[in-house]
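Second attempt. The first submission of ATP-binding cassette domain-containing protein had a stray character pasted in from the spreadsheet, which I only caught after the job came back as garbage. Lesson logged: always re-copy from the clean sequence file. Corrected sequence (237 aa) follows.
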Amino acid sequence: MNSVIIDLDAATYAWPGQPPLLDIKHLQLLAGERVFLKGPSGSGKTTLLGLLGGVYLPDQGQITLLGKNMASMSAAERDRFRADHTGYIFQMFNLLPYLSVVENVTLPCHFSRVRRERALKRHDGLASAALHLLHSLGLSDNALLDRSVNELSIGQQQRVAAARALIGSPELVIADEPTSALDADSREAFLRLLFAECSAAGSSLLFVSHDASLEPLFDRALSLRDINLAAQPQEVC
Ligand SMILES: Nc1ncnc2c1ncn2[C@@H]1O[C@H](COP(=O)(O)OP(=O)(O)OP(=O)(O)O)[C@@H](O)[C@H]1O
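This time the job returned cleanly.
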């Protein structure tokens, strides 16, 4: 049986001074699963990703990541746990312009000993681990690698962001609409590379997107509107 990566049990969340945003009875993500999370704009997808990754704590209920109750850890312990076990791909990528491509990719290994050691188990150095991932994700032009990330196209930046999320094989990769700036063919091509690298790293993938055409590529889809008892009926896609 697959082990459970995320287990959410009767969790609720409201931003301060706002009405309840999330009220979810049950949600699980299993090891190796690739799950598509969809929902209207403003329905709380990014907030849910923050809860599942331990950035925020639920007001009620419990969220367990890799068997650890997020509420049992201090904020600093949660930060460390997140750095060790989760990789993020953000919508705007959040790459650091003053670092090279390779330095951006190796960044998580400077915050997490666990990920540094895992990367070094398979490669001679962190730069070689980064290059391997970049090549596998389709960024094979070595001339690009010394450039500032600002000089890369959106599609190239996306690959750098994916390599950064995957380095050191975190158990969970969370992607928040990382394909929205790409055309349909590029989105699907990127997803296929991302899936292959998640499989190679043994990472589960939780992927948020508005693009319903991507849904069939995943093992399973979750509709936030269907699982969230606090969903507002007037939300629009
Ligand atoms: N840091 C915050 N402080 C206060 N309210 C917030 C914060 N972040 C999000 N919200 C509110 O929570 C609600 C849900 O936002 P969230 O970003 O989670 O939705 P989403 O489904 O990811 O939206 P989108 O698809 O447009 O990115 C919105 O009403 C938003 O204003």
